Amino acid sequence: MLEGAMHSSILKRAQANGHVDICLSDIRNFARDKHRTVDDRPFGGGPGMVMKCEPLVEAIESTRGSGPQPGRVIYMTPEGQRFDQAKAIELSQVDHLIFVSGHYEGIDERVREGWIDEELSIGDYVLTNGTVAALVIIDAVVRLLPGVLGNEASPISDSFSEGILEGPQYTRPEEFRGKKIPDILLSGNHAAIEAWRREQAEKRTAERRKDLL
Predict the structure, then answer these.
(1) Residue 105 falls in the annotated catalytic set
(2) 3 is catalytic
(3) pLDDT digits (tens, 9 = 90+) for 97-136
(4) 155 catalytic per annotation
(5) CB 196 within 8 A of CB 182
(6) 39 flagged as catalytic
(7) pTM assigned to the model
(8) Rounded to the nearest 5°, which phi and psi values hold at 79?
(9) Which of 58, 158, 162, 166 is catalytic?
């Protein structure tokens, strides 16, 4: 599920330029039986399957390492803390992140108690598995790393970086099908332009996300 995204766009360039190393680990490689089993029926009955302790823990331990600063293990689950831009900035300061993708009915609780450092969610809905959610966080974090984006100011001006949404943006042509760009953007007065952009950002936030103000 991740191969395509990891080899395109910003994530591809970030790896090629040495800004980040992204490694994918298949939990089935740590299964001991001939069928490479990584899940089983839940104790006590109920629907679905639960990911087993043995292969999952061995996968985590092989990836985490035993150095003085082992990786932070993050489990993707709807029960986790809601991910936001502030958390992305925090994670961008961590040298080694390990994302565990939940599948089926989740993972054995003993793994959560003993090998998971943090639990995150990207929203109040359910996905096929945690891999898609992990990709969202990886993308949000990697673009914050120094040198990844061509313009170092880009992540600073993004929506949520200052706690509000980003305002409207325009590019050439100056007029399209009768719609013209605001005159202020052609004034050459950079202070006035920045003030206008801030005003527009606050206006858009008030209209669409009052909870951020």
Answers:
(1) yes
(2) no
(3) 999 998 888 999 999 999 999 999 999 998 989 999 999 9
(4) no
(5) yes
(6) no
(7) 0.84
(8) -85, -5
(9) 158
